[in-house]
Amino acid sequence: MSRRGAGDVEYRQMYIGGKWVDAETGETFETVDPFTGKVWARAPLGGAADVRKAVRAATDALSGPWGTMSASARGNLIRRLGQLIAEHTEELAEIETTDNGKVIRETRGHMAGLPATYEYFAGAADKIQGATIPSPHTNFLTYTRREPIGVVAAILPWNSPLYLLASKLAPALAAGCAFVAKPAEQTPMSTLKFAELVAEAGFPDGVFNVVTGAGATGAALSADPGVAKVTFTGSTATGTAVMKAAAEHIADVTLELGGKSPNIVFADTDIEAAMNGVMAGIFAATGQTCIAGSRLLVAREIHDELVGKLAERIKTIRLGDPLDTATEVGPIAFDGQLDKVCSYVEIGLGEGATLVSGGRRPTGEDLRDGYFFEPTILTGVRNDMRVAREEIFGPVLSVIPFDSEEEAVRIANDTAYGLAAAVWTRDIQRAHRVAHQLNAGSIWINSYRVLAYNVPYGGFRQSGIGRENGLEGLDAYLQTKSVWVELTGASRDPFKLG
């Protein structure tokens, strides 16, 4: 597979109100291929004026054909969009891999799975129902309607733009909302390509809009008074700022934020299976996932054996061009994130951790231009160290031993986060017992990093607010209206309530 943008820098415009447009200022920004370290594409640097235009277009769509379209017709459009994604799987995967460095085998899998998400919510569009409520007043018919919340602003992360867009856009469209997406400044290109498919599917102008830009662009979108809901995936610090901006105009929020997820391995586990699960949890996607199993809590009696197996397996991991299907771990997405990962390893060693594997940039000739970092294992980690408490978002595993089930649960829950966790054991009673005690939104038993469009996903505590996917994800884009119908028409005392 050839590299995109070799010699030429690709440029894509924003998509607002059914038109392809430049930023009002005419400014642009560059996006870098993390494998080559070179600029491969440019996009408009949208500002507050562009955000306002996109929100206005979305508002107009709600009062236009989209707002009066039947639920079945909405479902048909969503289903058509899913079909177009299936037809463009390879192109979308290649663009996203070039933008963020995630290996093609994973982005290809993401894109191939996206049509099912759109199909699921397409089927849900005409199943949104209210309820008839027995009124305490016999002369009234009382019922509820479930209506779209309005204009939705989605601020997307750089690690899996289209995969995470789907869990926001598909239910929002099913609910009848209009949408403004702001992709991360490091990875705008796949979302802009996706907008072409939305247009081809036949959605009315303004239903889906894309504004590209930097942090100020996202801040303007969160703060726009025309936005009824903000959905954000990213760091807890940025999520806090998004929530504050949305609060200024009382907008609803769904936040999927950071994590420091524990992967708990008991002594009675299948150690080979656990090793594979730990590897998938922290080194797949170069550790750049919110649900990364970045804390390995392992029973002391098997600590050395498991760490030894992990260290041996790491030696066989193939780093390289993420567009090569043989590559297992690609580069860090951008230079600033690489610097952050490097600094955390130094912090951990300074706090007393021991470096077992990795911990540096690779020196191979074919990797020297990219933002690569070796898969890293730190042992001797205490749960009060920064490498155990702060999200690194890279291929760095902090190993913490425990001596009892109670201690494992205590360490696992001793965190500001609560996004995910896993339990590895052959004892089914222990598996459920521990899972019930863990404070996290997703718990895996003898597995890791498995998600689906029909299973709710989200975090506890500083890992976020609300749920995406499943019927709970659809509910997040609906609001309830109560209707009271006077049946008798009899004259009533205007000063008597009820």
Indicate the topology.
Layout (H helix, E strand, L loop, with lengths): L9 E2 L2 E3 L2 E3 L6 E6 L4 E7 L3 H15 L2 H4 L2 H17 L1 H12 L3 H21 L7 E2 L6 E9 L2 E5 L5 H15 L2 E5 L6 H13 L6 E3 L4 H9 L5 E5 L2 H12 L4 E5 L5 E4 L5 H12 L12 E5 L3 H12 L20 H16 L3 E4 L18 E4 L6 H4 L6 E7 L2 H9 L6 E5 L3 H10 L4 E4 L18 E2 L4 H6 L2 E9 L12
Parallel strand pairs: 1-5, 8-9, 8-11, 9-10, 11-12, 13-14, 13-18, 14-17, 16-17, 18-19
Antiparallel strand pairs: 2-3, 4-5, 6-7, 7-21, 12-20, 15-16
Helix pairs in contact: 1-8, 3-5, 3-6, 3-7, 4-5, 4-7, 5-6, 8-9
Contiguous low-pLDDT stretches (5 residues minimum) are: none
Helix content: 25-40%
Name the strands of the widest sheet in spatial order.
15-16-17-14-13-18-19
Strand content range: 15-25%
What does this structure look like?
This protein is of the alpha/beta class and 498 residues long. It is built from 16 helices and 21 strands. The strands form five sheets. It has a seven-stranded mixed sheet with strand order 15-16-17-14-13-18-19, with helices on both faces. A hairpin with a 2-residue loop joins strand 2 and strand 3. It starts with 9 loop residues before the first strand and ends in a 12-residue tail after the last strand. The model has no long low-confidence stretch (mean pLDDT 96).
List keywords for this structure.
seven-stranded mixed sheet, 16 helices, 498 residues, alpha/beta
